[in-house]
Amino acid sequence: MSTLKKIPGIVTGSASLQRPKFSPGLLLEDEDLTLAVDSMRRLTQALFSAFFGCGVICGFVVKWEIDCGKLKITVGKGAALDCTGALIQMPEPTVITLDPTCGPKIPPNLCIAIRHHESCCGPRDVTCAPEDEQSGSVCTRIREGYELRIAEDCPDCSCGCAELTDEEKQQEDTSQSIQNNPNAPNPAPSVRSVTPVDSYGLKCYEDHYKGECGCACCCDWIVLATLKVYIQADEVTGATVDHSRRRFIRPVLMRDPIAYGHPSP
Question: What pLDDT is recorded for position 140?
Answer without folding.
Answer: 84
